[in-house]
């Protein structure tokens, strides 16, 4: 039986009991079945209306209780509570927050996931300015990290963690306000290559809504495949996907664990389940030559599985002859994201 059907049945039983009780109490001649018939459908519709979105979003995400991660400030009794929601742009500040537990107190016990007790994602609501950082926690359970908001606007904080005693991770999200002129940055066009600092990251895959899609990133530097990726937080890559429109949050890792001393690359493959068709921003974190880098992609996820992301056959930095022949050097990578650089 579906949860909606169970709710409907429960509502009907409740209405029936109420109707019987009322009829008995006032001793009226109201037919209890007729009374139940008139009240139950109205009640059912309300329940059905509430159930439907949760059921729809829940595809492939039963672990989060039917709601996609990152959309709620509070879930399973845990609440993300920022110390302040007002910030100034361009100034070195400190992000401070607590995770309040079911007892109302800040959580101080966590289960480590990917070598950290908590992962914090900071991104402006237009999906620019992505940061993946790791705050520290004091004895009272307050998390903090120095941070500089690069521009005004509404920014979203995602706390990705597993409280001790809970058998799954939670991703809670909240908005904070950064004052100043807000110039929204349009999403970059869907592209299969992202180039920066001599690196070219290509993406290949066939993303389809509602089931696991394989995405393969290939990393090269100066035209040569990178074969010495370093483990970063227990994996050769961390992929955060945010759905344009509501910033629903997906965090995926390659199936292969990365242990210290191992070398990875040039390919990193992820199995990602996009819950719905739509536009997603993908942020791939990887570590090479001692630095963590972020590659960004806009991906259009189709409902029919016909979306093929095919990497270019030759990369701009791999073909010096192209530059000599008058081609612009460097890829026009994600122009929309240049204004608010991703930093680590
Ligand atoms: Cu992290």
Question: Your description of this structure?
Answer:
- The protein is an alpha+beta fold and 344 residues long.
- The chain has three domains: 3-57, no CATH class; 74-178, Macroglobulin (MG2) domain (Immunoglobulin-like), CATH 2.60.40.1930; 193-337, Immunoglobulin-like.
- The protein is built from three helices and 19 strands.
- The strands form four sheets. Strands 1-2-4-8-7 form a five-stranded antiparallel beta sheet, with no helix packed on it.
- Strand 9 and strand 10 form a beta hairpin.
- Helix 1 runs antiparallel to helix 2.
- The longest helix is centred in the first third of the chain and has 26 residues, at 32-57.
- The protein is globular, with a radius of gyration of 25 Å.
- The two termini are 48 Å apart.
- Residues 1-65 and 318-344 have low confidence and may be disordered.
- The structure holds copper (II) ion.
- The site of copper (II) ion has 5 residues, from loops.
- Residues 116, 119, 132, 134, 233 line the site of copper (II) ion.
């Amino acid at each position: 039986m579906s949860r909606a059907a169970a709710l409907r049945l429960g509502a009907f039983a409740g209405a029936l009991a109420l109707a019987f009780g009322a009829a008995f109490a006032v001793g009226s001649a109201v037919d209890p079945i007729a009374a139940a018939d008139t009240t139950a459908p109205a009640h059912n519709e309300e329940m059905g209306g509430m159930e439907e979105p949760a059921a729809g979003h829940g595809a492939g995400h039963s672990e989060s209780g039917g709601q996609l991660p990152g959309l709620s400030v509070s879930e399973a009794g845990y609440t993300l509570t920022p110390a302040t929601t007002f910030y100034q742009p361009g100034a070195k500040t400190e992000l401070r927050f607590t995770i309040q537990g079911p007892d109302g107190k800040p959580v101080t016990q966590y289960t480590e996931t990917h070598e950290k007790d908590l992962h914090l994602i900071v991104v402006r609501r237009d999906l620019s300015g992505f940061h993946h950082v790791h705050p520290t926690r004091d004895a009272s359970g307050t998390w903090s990290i120095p941070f500089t908001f690069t521009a005004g606007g509404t920014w979203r904080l995602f706390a990705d963690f597993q409280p001790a005693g809970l058998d799954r991770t939670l991703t809670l999200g909240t908005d904070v306000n950064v004052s100043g002129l807000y110039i929204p940055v349009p999403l970059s066009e869907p592209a299969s290559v992202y180039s920066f600092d001599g690196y070219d990251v290509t993406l290949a895959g066939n993303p389809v809504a509602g089931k696991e899609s394989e995405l393969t990133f290939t990393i090269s530097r100066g035209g040569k495949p990178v074969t010495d990726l370093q483990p970063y937080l227990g994996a050769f890559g961390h992929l955060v996907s945010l759905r344009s429109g509501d910033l629903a949050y997906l965090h995926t890792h390659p199936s292969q664990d990365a242990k210290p001393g191992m070398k990875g690359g040039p390919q990193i493959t992820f199995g990602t389940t996009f819950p719905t068709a739509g536009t997603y921003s993908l942020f791939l974190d990887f570590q090479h030559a001692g630095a963590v880098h972020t590659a960004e992609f806009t991906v259009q996820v189709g409902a029919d599985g016909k979306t093929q992301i095919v990497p270019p056959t030759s990369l701009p930095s791999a073909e010096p002859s192209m530059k000599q022949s008058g081609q612009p050097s460097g890829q026009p990578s994600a122009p929309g994201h240049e204004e608010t650089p991703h930093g680590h």
